[in-house]
Amino acid sequence: MKKAIVFGATSGLGWALTELLVKNNYKVAITGRRKHKLEELQSKYSESIIIKQNDIQQVDEVEKVFNEIVNEFSKIDLIIQSSGVGYVNPKLEWNKENETMLTNVIGVTKLYDLAYNLFRKQGFGHLVGISSIASIRGNRAAPAYFASKAYQKAYLESLYIKTKTISSKKVFITDIRPGFVNTAMVLGEGVFWLVPLHKAAKQIFTAIKKKKRVAYISKRWRLIAYVLKLVPTWILKKAT
Q: In terms of Cα–Cα distance, which of 111, 125, 143, 130 is closest to 73?
């Protein structure tokens, strides 16, 4: 039986992906801040899920929980990072900017490093980071969120390049870049191309099985990403 960890499994994509993993014969350790939500998910699949409450902003706690799971499972095949914070914050309120960076940059970096070092030691493993279409360009309404996702994109790419040094060639890095998915993380109102949660989770799971380097969710967001990369900043200034 394969072993997986899902960080940020209390709702949204983390929850939906955990269910898909269990249905595909994975033993899964799930983490998150809301213990009652972890227990709710575990109650549905008691033989396949263990829970570890943690707050990804507390990096020492992240390492402690991570090591506990590794010791219990002995090997880890897959780690999915689904924790995230995002605010529409045009007034640049510091508490919102700070929370975004503590979660999406500091906490996520700690987890990425722990995962990479484990997989390097094991000689195998698959790290999946949930970044965003927001990683492509900046945005006036949610600068910290967009910047933090750009950071994640660059960090995952760096880890992918770094896998060249692992002789087994069995360590994989996948960057998942969702557009608008019907979860609590959707920023703003009146969004277009809103993808149902379970459709998004299925597409992500397919990308994981194929060990994709980058996957846009849904696939049509690849076109938007292509356009965003080409658009001059002055046009974005007028449009966004």
A: 125
Contacts of 209 (CB under 8 A, 6+ apart): none
For residue range 138-157, what is the model confidence (pLDDT) as tens digits? 999 999 999 999 999 999 99
Q: Which residues contact 197 (CB under 8 A, 6 or more apart)?
A: 12, 13, 16, 181, 182, 183
Q: What is the pLDDT of residue 185?
A: 52
Pairing mode of beta strands 171-178, 214-217: parallel
- Of the candidates 205, 209, 231, 237, the residue with the CA atom closest to the CA atom of residue 82: 205
- ω into residue 132 within 30 of 0, thus cis? no
Threshold 0.70, pTM exceeds: yes
Structure tokens at 206: 């397919």
User: What CA–CA distances, in Å, run from 233 to 93, 137, 226?
Assistant: 24, 9, 14
For the chain, the three-class secondary structure string (H helix, E strand, C coil) is CEEEEEECCCCHHHHHHHHHHHHCCEEEEEEECCHHHHHHHHHHCCCCEEEEECCCCCHHHHHHHHHHHHHHHCCCCEEEECCCCCCCCCCCCHHHHHHHHHHHHHHHHHHHHHHHHHHHHHCCEEEEEECCHHHCCCCCCCHHHHHHHHHHHHHHHHHHHHHHHCCCCCEEEEEEEECCECCCCCCCCCCCCCECHHHHHHHHHHHHHCCCCEEEECCCHHHHHHHHHHCCHHHHHHHC
CA dist., res. 107 & res. 83, Å (int): 9
